[in-house]
Each structure stands twice: as structure tokens, then as C-alpha cells.
Amino acid sequence: EVQLVQSGAEVKKPGESLKISCKGSGYSFTSYWIGWVRQMPGKGLEWMGIIYPGDSDTRYSPSFQGQVTISADKSISTAYLQWSSLKASDSAMYYCARQGPDGAYFDYWGQGTLVTVSS
Amino acid sequence: SYELTQPPSVSVSPGQTARITCSGDELPKQYACWYQQKPGQAPVLVLYKDTQRPSGIPERFSGSSSGTTVTLTISGVQAEDEADYYCQSAVSSATWVFGGGTKLTVL
Questions:
Q1: Mind telling me how many Å the CA of A2 is from chain B's nearest CA?
Q2: Which residues of A12-23 are buried (b: 16+ CB within 10 A; e: fewer)?
Q3: Which chain B residue's Cα is nearest to A60?
């Protein structure tokens, strides 16, 4: 069974750094792109970027380029999303999701990680 | 920047047909997919490659494409179909975008 399990909720202060994780199981982690999606409170889904764990090829939405870093450690089947200096506007739910085997769609999603940034 | 446009809301009575559209200039060249999201839950894929249904998705969910518009059709809407629906498509190879989302209300 394919599963993506994300790390737990985080409460941080502005300016702090953060790295959240997404662990894949039940499939060949290195053979599928993993993406990250932001959902701000009461708002829609925003595509942030995507990584291919097999070779760490990474693509970012222009809106998120330079704002976050996506990485992966294939030895432990885990993808990451990190910030070097959080802002209050980074408060949101973040989902990881696996790209389908043959196209531009996410077929499996993590449960989400809620990030709250507040002074 | 490239955008996919959806109506903010659609309302239907139980048993009727709901149609949710998604418009974008690249849609004639790129496949679209659709997700259903219920409150407090992660999105679920309901259609991919414009018209394909993943296993476990009821047959009442169907899709079509015409020019710059793709449409998600839910036939015989049930109360459990009340949710937010998002389309998604590619901007370029390996960079994608979501539509703004449509809230489906079952009256």
C-alpha cells in the first residue's frame, strides 16, 4: 500500500528555520516525483515544487523559487521542505504528494503538516 | 503567469448533474486532472488525463475537454459529493498549476 506520512504540526516564530518531512512507503521511492502543495487558511491549493528522488532533480514554481528548498534523502525514502527564515505569511497547511506514473497528476497525498508562524 | 480559471461556486440539488469548468490557454496542449477536497482532509484525485477515473472513484464522476476548457461532470450528485474541487494542469514540463477551486454545494 502506497503511503506518504508527513511530520507533525509545527509552531515557530518569525525568523526561525524549519524543515518538514514526508516519508514514502509501499513503492519505489526513487522512481516517482514528489511534490509539495501549500494551502493557506481558507484558501486554495498552490503548487510549490517537485523533486525526483532518484537524482534530486528539482523544479520550483516561480512563486516559491528562492523562498523554500525542496530536497530528498533516498536512503530513508523521505522528502523535505525547508525554510531558512519563516514569515507569518508562511502559516499554512503543507501537503506532499506523489506524481502519478504516467503524467501530471498527484495520485497519493500525505496527511498534511500544519505550520504556524507567530510571535 | 499562467492561470487556470474555475467558477467559485456551483450549487445543485441531489440527483441532478453538476458541471464544473476549468479554463486555461494551455489546456488544448496539456492534460488536466481534478481533485476533491472535503473539510479537514487532504485532496483526493478524482480524474486524470482529462477523462480517466482512478480506481475507487464512482462512475458518476466524468470528464471532458473542448478547446481551452475542461469540465468535471458529476451525474446524480449525492450529498457526499459536497466538497471543494480543484483542477490542475502543467505550465511546462514538471511545473504545474492549480485552479482557484470550486465549492460544490448540494442543496
A1: 14
A2: beeeeebebbbb
A3: B95
